[in-house]
Input
Amino acid sequence: MTNTIVALTMPKFGLAMTEGKLASWLVEPGQSVKQGDELADIETSKITSGYESPTAGVLRKQVAPAGETLPVGALIGVLADPAVSDADIEAFVTRFQAEQSTGEEAEGANSADTEPHQVQAGEYSLNVRDVGTGDDLPLLLIHGFGGDISNWLLTQDALASGRRVIAFDLPGHGASTKAVTDGSLAGLAGAVADLLDALSISKAHVMGHSLGGGIALTLLRDHADKVASLSLVAPAGLEKAVNMAFITGFIEADRNRAMQQELEKLVHDKSLIGRKMVDSVMRARRLDGARDALRTIATACFPNGEQGDDLRPVLDAAKVPVQLFWGEADEVLPVAGAENVPSSVKKHILPGVGHLPQLEKASDVNKETEEFLKERVPA
Amino acid sequence: MQIARETLLQSYRAMRTIRAFEERLHVEFATGEIPGFVHLYCGEEASAVGVCAHLTDNDTIASTHRGHGHCIAKGVDVGGMMAEIYGRQTGVCRGKGGSMHIADLSKGMLGANGIVGGGPPLICGAALSHKTLKDNGVAIAFYGDGASNEGFTLESLNLASVWKLPAVFVVEDNGYGEATGASYACAGTQKDRAAGFGMPYMECDGTDFFSVYESAREAIDYARSGKGPVMLHVHLSRWYGHFEGDAMTYRVAGEVAEQKEHHDCLKHFRERVTSAGLLEATALDDIDAAVADEVESSVIAAKAAPWPEDSALMADVYVKY
Amino acid sequence: MSKKSFRQAINEALRQEMRRDPRVILMGEDVAGGRGGTSGVKDAWGGVLGVTKGLLTEFGEDRVLDTPISEASYIGAAAGAAATGLRPVAELMFVDFIGSCLDQVLNQAAKFRYMFGGKARTPMVIRAMYGAGFNAAAQHSQSLYPLFTHIPGLKVVIPSSPYEAKGLLIEAIRDDDPVIFLENKVMYDEEEDVPDESYTIPFGEANLTREGEDVTIVAIGRMVGMANEAADRLEKQGITCTVIDPRTTSPFDEDTILECVEETGRLVVVDESSPRCNMACDISALVAERAFGALKAPIVRVVPPHTPVPFSTPLEKLYMPSAEKIEAAVKNVMKQHAREVA
Output
């Protein structure tokens, strides 16, 4: 890095994010940073997340103060070599902001392509967000119990260079059909198979989180020909244990305060759960049928207060490459589930991480997954 | 006119119960043990009973501040009523309504009402329920000559006609709104008021069960058949004051005595059914005795019943809050 | 999910609930309009401002009932119908007309359950327009929610946006108690994203529309938008505000207000209703009683003067709270703090 000045702008964490709040600066002006160091905390309606430095350098200026809400793409700070003069920095800021204000009209033209849309998959109408193109096999992302496509907001676009990456809302979730006829893992895996057919995808890499991991394993069992590889993130089906107090509390919470307490069980760093995130979960939960759908699935998947499906035999017999992420501090599905898996499984136990590794340690999960998809999967 | 023996027995029992209940309240009120104030229905029994004889629990009535008679005629439990008037936990309203608010929706009794003219608008709604739910029910508003001058009541007559509701407006005209005579306070006639809203008008002698029974049958059949509302004007007399303690200085001496002597619906009923051989005097005597026992035990039970718990203060303001 | 106006959000809530439950009926003056007219046109108005347009066509005259101009009888009828098996939604048109039918609300609907010892349910909703800013003058512009909030047995809902309106109205229709649902007539054309599906927003849970550290602003109904506007301007000046929308004044979420005041130490209450015995008084009393120690400055109320609502545009503007007045009030509480510390 020599004379280049790098603009730090409000990032877009996927989906419908149009603005974000600069919650706090983690680096003072004048401080040197490495690539990947967290510069600031950005708060959105979905999650609070660290903003990682795109490159090494010195934080020369905090353009936006902590607490300010800015549109995506707005200048929040400037990174540059100490050799660059303050005058040049100021000139850069002025020029950048001037250009941005004239360019605002053109923004958003391409966002239509990445908007979620409804796809009829068997009996269900599913909300699908389909991004990226390329020669690699597509990657299908399956969220967990009570989640939705926003669980992949730090994952989907990051993995979409060189391949199609599809996220969708499971039946009974998000903007998909609310009424769930068969809430079992087999029933949900059937819906996923229907979705792949509807999208004319004969084979895909499959990444599943939590219940979605259980669905991914069930998909491998029931529709092996459709699965090229498995990326399992704290998956269901490997242990009997599940935090039923969480499951019940999470389904039945009818006030934001109660929901906040439940959502905090999902992560190790409780401050990640902002009020806006809670509100967005509650907005989805208030839709008619949303709660009933979760009850149906919970009854089918967690009979007698524990997991009903044993998918270890599926994992043990898996003939496709498998990687496994698990947060050491997972309060929902204990990390013990990662023990005694076949040695062929590439295992990542993440310290200081709860039940949402793909959000809590997005960059690690994305980096490992990119490598896994590129290197471990035969073309 | 053929009236089944069972109906006659039940009607006599209901009228006797009202009389005994109210006479007893008159006595008990004087002892100071009954909280608040009560408005007695003595003398008007044939009206409530003659109308309600045509109703089932599926039909709805709304009553007035003078509501004990309507409650008993509609089948509300006498013991529960007495306990309510005493403000006890065992009352039909758990001691939270009192004399003027006795209600039992399971019996189609939409409440006595402390607001003069409160009933007619509610009865438009109850009639709308019957019509919309197609349950063949009718809704009856009992109200007095005083309430007939309330704007609510006149609006309700209009609305019931406009919506062609299965409703009967029973004007219990005892000649006084509190201490003011109907001859002063009611302009025109009830008949012209009904005509003004395009509804049929009937009238009857409220001291004669058979007169009320026959007119009410016609009125209720009309409403139930879907032809729209009817006004039934019942002429009667109250034997006690507007409320207990009212010396009735606005009435000429002897007016009530004359009513008791010559226009007592119970006396009239007994004479008529025994002379026509419809019921035996002994059957009526048995009812009198049974009713006396029932009222006596209701008072004993009410006095012995517990007061509401403190927690009842906050209970049932809302279904959920 | 699509952009819907406040008017459309309410229409959709009514339509979806009427489809879901045949016991839900609609009544009011000109909720359809046109009956008895010489043209034979039905659904001529669909409500005086078109909110119930099209419901007659779908649900017919048995469930969308035009009433005579006769508030006491039909509001009373709604109470009677609710107590006997229907779930009526009665439209009072302008809330000012409560004067013609207060008994039916105050002494009948609100009291049934308590007077009858918990044995009655009165699932009715009274929808009515409130609020100044429409040049509708003194008899069509009042914000009478304090009057209803004062009456035990009633629930009182004042939505602040289209999303809120739909969810709160569906909740109101499904609720088993009498609910007064007040719509600010100036807001009918305001738009935002509203889900197409049915959803409910629970009563008694305040919504935080802004979060800040310096001042808590409690605002009601249309005032929430003004408070947000003021908070956004103030943020650029270095003052951050929490804006609380109580959503319902009965039940009332006291905890959220107390918690936020504990955090910020300063309170501004914005209330469009007449200033004596209004919600701003109630909230101020709450905070004075239970969070006095947290206050760094006196509470400031942004309320209209104690006058009827005037007609003429400049006078009405003078009368109304506004984003500017809220901004000034916030700066004022901040200044008072500075002076005391100095």
About this structure: Confidence is low (pLDDT under 50) at residues 105-111 of chain A. Chain A has ten helices and 16 strands.
